[in-house]
Write a structure and sequence with these properties.
The protein has about 400 residues and is of the alpha/beta class. Helix content is about 40%, strand content about 20%. The longest helix has 20 residues, at about 150-170.
Length: about 400
């Protein structure tokens, strides 16, 4: 197939969307499909991403990446969004490429740049299908970033939900990787949903690695934590990832934790980095910020840790959760959103009641102190991951082909 993909982001930015798109391109290239990818240009962030040119142009056989003129996105220093004027480039390149189908990742974010429902106008003119992929609950982020009364937030969210539904209803289908997220979207009026397992991990990458003696000392020059229980946090250091809850809970119930046996590993970047480090250091001196880590670093990082912690209540699926499970470490997460599709409480992780700090800390304490339970859950965590990237991208390809045949 000839497939055009319009994405809200791509490497060198590292997040769930960009990792998914990169793995998709890698597999489709091997399968001899022709792909044209549109994404923002990151050259203005070369001080953060000095290797940005590695991910533009012909990065794989049959794959071409076009970086569109971009603008800042929500004042996030390491993000960009497409510019309104760049949409003419999309239309010109689509006309030259003549795709069989157009796939759009995060069309609501792209709408903020293009002020258009990306790809739809060309698809209608060319009489080809155009599908969307729902990745992120942006509307639920409002309460994390805007200090407004709750009634005002609810009103803004109501308007935003209707606008988002209008955007997604313009596509032939909205692809969702989480049954729980799909059910939630259906209840608020989204009608063109196709649910399938569309997110995976590189299972071989995890199976081919084992715990390494003194790993953190060798890889990150962190010494003295080999015998400690290593908690790992991986992701953006931003309010939407539940960091205010995490910091408040750990501070409020700090006397329940035996801190001398704990090391806290934090991988990621974001506006809360300094605040997180300072507040964590009041609890234990063994707090280590690794900064931005690349996909190849994630398997050994997880494998050599003991517990993965996330307190984000807004995950539509949670790629890092799948990665932690594949590494065979227990996950502690809120019983919320798409997380519950992957984490079975007491089997491959522990789920706490959302916003309940005591429940969170008690479960974290129990898992940290009980080696037998931790080892049992670790083994079950690894066994709970069945589909790698090849299988889930094959699922996506089958959906594209079915929609194309029906068009």
């Amino acid at each position: 197939m000839k497939i055009a993909i319009i994405s809200s982001g791509f490497f060198p930015v590292i997040d769930g969307v960009t990792v998914t798109v990169f793995q998709r391109l890698r597999y489709l290239s091997k399968s001899n499909h022709q792909i044209l990818l549109f994404c923002p240009d990151y050259r203005s962030l070369s001080s953060i991403y000095p290797n940005w040119q590695k991910y533009t142009g012909n990065i794989f056989p049959n794959i071409r990446v076009i970086n569109l003129p971009s603008t800042p996105f929500m004042n996030v220093e390491f993000e960009r969004n497409v510019s309104q004027s760049s949409y003419q480039i999309v239309l010109q390149e689509l006309q030259t490429f003549q795709p069989d189908i157009i796939h759009v990742d995060e069309p609501e974010r792209l709408w903020l740049g293009f002020l258009k429902r990306a790809g739809i106008d060309y698809a209608k003119k060319a009489k080809i299908p155009c599908v969307s992929f729902f990745h992120t609950n942006f509307i639920e982020y409002f309460e994390d970033y805007f200090p407004l009364p709750q009634w005002t937030i609810k009103m803004i969210q109501w308007v935003a939900i209707h606008h988002r539904n209008w955007i997604y209803h313009g596509y032939d289908a909205t692809l969702v990787s989480s049954p729980t997220t799909a059910e939630k979207l259906t209840k608020i009026g989204l009608k063109n949903i196709i649910t399938a397992n569309l997110l995976g991990v590189d299972i071989a990458e995890y199976n081919n690695q084992n715990k390494e003696l003194n790993y953190f000392e060798k890889a990150y020059q962190i010494s003295g934590i080999e015998q400690k229980n290593k908690w790992i946090f991986l992701g953006r250091l931003t309010p939407d990832k539940g960091w205010n809850f995490t910091l408040n809970a750990l501070t409020q119930f700090s006397d329940l934790i035996d801190w001398q046996h704990i090391a806290i590993i934090i991988a990621g970047e974001g506006e809360m980095k300094t605040e997180i480090f300072q507040k964590m250091q009041h609890l234990t001196p063994h707090v280590y910020l690794l900064g931005r880590v690349f996909p190849k670093q994630i398997p050994p990082l997880f494998i050599n840790s003991d517990i993965y912690i996330t307190t984000s209540e807004k995950e539509t699926k949670g790629l890092t959760i799948l990665e932690a499970l594949a590494a065979g470490i227990p996950v502690i997460a809120p019983r919320s959103g798409g997380i519950i599709d992957s984490v079975q409480d007491g089997y491959n992780g522990l789920l706490f009641t959302p916003k309940n700090a005591k429940d969170f800390i008690q479960k974290l304490k129990n898992l940290s102190e009980n080696t037998t339970i931790r080892q049992k859950i670790s083994a079950q965590a690894k066994a709970s991951i069945h589909q790698g990237w090849e299988e889930v991208i094959e699922n996506l390809l089958n959906i594209w082909q079915e929609i194309h045949r029906a068009c």
